[in-house]
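dumping this here before i forget
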Amino acid sequence: MVYVYKTKGVCSREMTVDVDENGIIQSCVIKGGCPGNLLGISRIVIGMKAEDVIERFRGTRCGFKSTSCPDQLSYALEEALAAAAK
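structure:
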């Protein structure tokens, strides 16, 4: 299932994730922000269970911000899993 998430409080603007029926991330595209870091994050998470990424990335902060792109990805994945469960 492809899910589009509008980020909040970070440089990136939008995240598109594709999570299969087993909760495995098939693709991840993050628009805006720091290109190299976000491309790296996208490549790291492919093939991982969404729940594992949520657990590892949740609460990560960027400088003085209360969130970060990895943290926002955890929220995107959480919403994608909830939408798939409906």
